[in-house]
Design brief:
about 30% helix; alpha+beta; single chain; four-stranded mixed β-sheet; Ribosomal Protein S5, domain 2; globular
Length: about 140
């Protein structure tokens, strides 16, 4: 299955929503944050006219499937080579197992230092086990 550009969590407010409104699950080599997106209206979310300090309207699009954001910090994972390897591995796990996640969910996968010491199959199994716990009807 492909990992399409629209399946990436890119906007800062999407990351913030997942962290503030979502839930967290410890998966060993990574932490999985999950957040169910609200149903998307057909237009933009307009700020109220009474509040002049409101932020610019936020576009809301209907998404085809689940989205993922991958985070690997220098403090948690290490140098650039290790961070890039961790992110590649997490994206690949999601790409192969995305059918386990309902279409209206955003996932944040936060890498830890121990991720690069795990075999790929162990990382994939941890993700599968987490999805089965979170979304039992999908597995």
């Amino acid at each position: 299955m492909r990992f399409r550009p629209e399946q990436h969590v890119r906007r800062q407010y999407d990351f913030r929503d997942a962290r503030e409104k979502g839930r967290r699950l410890d998966c060993g080599g990574f932490t999985l944050w999950y957040y169910q997106r609200p149903a998307a209206p057909s237009a933009l979310i307009e700020p109220s006219s009474a509040n002049q300090n409101a932020a610019a309207p936020r576009p809301v699009r209907a998404f085809i499937g689940p989205r993922v954001g991958v985070i690997a910090s220098t403090a948690a994972v290490g140098c650039a080579i290790e961070r890039n390897r961790a992110k590649r591995r997490l994206r690949e796990v999601f790409r192969h197992q995305q059918q386990l996640v309902p279409a209206d969910y955003d996932l944040l996968m936060v890498a830890r230092h121990s991720l690069n010491r795990l075999e790929y199959t162990a990382i994939e199994q941890k993700f599968i086990d987490a999805c089965r716990r979170l979304f039992p009807s999908r597995s």
